[in-house]
Amino acid sequence: MSDTASTRATGNAADRPLTSAPDLLPSLAPLLADWVPRQRWFAGKGRRITGLTLLSATELLPCTADGNGPGLLQLLVRTRQSAPPSATADCYQLLLGVRPALPSRLAPALIGRPSGGPLRGRAVYDALRDGRLCGLLLERLRLPGRFGALHFCREAGADIPAGLPGRPIAVEQSNTSLVFGDTFILKVFRQITPGINPDLELPRALADAKCPRVPAPVAWFEARPPGTGDEPTTLGVLQPYLQDSSDGWQLALAALAVRTDFTPAARALGHATAEVHTALAQTLPTAELGRPQLESIAAGMSERLDTTVRAVPALEPYRARLRTAFDALAAVGHDGRSWAAQRIHGDLHLGQTLCSAGDGRWSLIDFEGEPARPLAERRRPQPAVRDVAAILRSFDYAARSGPSGGDAWSLEWARRTRDAYCRGYAEAGGLAPWSVPELMRAYETDKAVYEVLYEARHRPDWLPVPMAAVRRLAAGAGRPAEGGGGWG
């Protein structure tokens, strides 16, 4: 559908007065300033919102019409927060439902009722908890084109049936995911950074490479908010829903609960990871990391360590020993050695993997990378062993988080499982992790430091899990044996 046809079909909704009303955001601001910080996807935990700036507004379904039907409003807003003063502003995507009266089933989704402005007295709520409004989003993707500030896109030849019921996944995430009829899953990005999101860019590249380990995108929507440059900003991605699959985290916990060997599954997952890395290296630009680049990476790791120590003083006794891993990484380039870098997953853990119940085949999902890191950094070529180190940390997490609570059997389970994963990765053509101990130890240490800060901020009860890894890595108990059971 052409842009003009799309505008006619939607009744030119983007030009309705609501989206340009000067009092729209001021009337919503008190409600949003209270609601947004309580959401799992809000990045600025612990800091009060002091102001909101409206970047764009699109009325996807009329919000001020007479009747009891819902309206749908899509906003991009930039937040301002209290201390620290150096904190950068964050941009968020909000999808707001609007009704004169809210049905009881939607009561938990209520944000509030504005006391003024164009939506005065109406119930404003989280639209992604309303199946009817979720269905409207899918319809926009099924019939692509421009709609106000938004651009809905669909892969050529993709078939998206009409009328699929939509529901949100009842799991806390850094984004919001909707499932449509057990056929598709739509990830709606909440924290927005200008540019193409890796969760669209990398799966499309893997689809071009005919890599079957990653569900290929079917459709997506994007925008070009004012002041964000010429490159489109990804707002959501629709992919096939692998309904007969279970995520690796739940499978690992289930194996630990009944004390079952997980090494065959871990070895197969190593194969899958290596296949994805190989396809990415063949499809997207690569780089060589020499002394300056390795020193820069090590310096960034050291800086994150210092930042985390200031936030979590319990890390202070281990700081000097942890830093030796980063110093060793910086030193590997001193004799002229270099390491290959490529596009990677960037936030790989067992929860980002799916295993098919039918044939035990593994898939990798959620290529957004760590949302807290700048988009330019997430799109930069990096050593593939960073993903390997991250999944090894995930095996350790499972062993220490399961019903056994990290007893001797569980820790041995983690060692054997980590070893099997590394062997599978090497067998499928990946760089043998035990051949690069300096890189592996540095990246695993950096990941553990990241986990300490994350748990301290979001899940304090989980803090002992990464702290146990910190103690192990700081102790530096031996070199990794072939197979990669551990590097410290």
Uncertain residue ranges:
1-16, 477-485
What's the helical proportion of residues?
Answer: 25-40%
Q: What is the global morphology?
A: globular
* Head-to-tail CA distance between termini: 58 Å
How many helices does DSSP assign? 14
| Structural class by helix and strand composition | alpha+beta
Please outline the major beta sheet.
7 strands, antiparallel
Strand content: 15-25%
| Biggest sheet: strand arrangement | 6-7-12-13-10-9-8
Q: Please give the number of β-strands.
A: 18
Features:
488 residues; alpha+beta; Aminoglycoside 3'-phosphotransferase, Chain: A, domain 2; 2 domains; seven-stranded antiparallel sheet; six-stranded antiparallel sheet; 14 helices; 38% helix; globular; disordered N terminus
Describe the structure.
With 488 residues, the chain is of the alpha+beta class. It has two domains: 3-240, no CATH class; 245-475, Aminoglycoside phosphotransferase (APH), C-terminal lobe (Aminoglycoside 3'-phosphotransferase, Chain: A, domain 2). Helix content is 38%, strand content 19%. The chain contains 14 helices and 18 strands. The protein has helices at 3-9, 17-20, 24-35, 131-142, 198-208, 248-257, 263-283, 291-311, 319-331, 375-378, 385-401, 408-427, 437-458, 464-475; strands spanning 49-61, 71-81, 90-99, 110-112, 123-126, 145-147, 150-154, 166-168, 176-180, 184-188, 191-192, 219-223, 233-240, 245-247, 287-289, 339-341, 353-356, 362-364. Helix 9 (319-331) packs across helix 14 and helix 11 (385-401) packs antiparallel against helix 12.
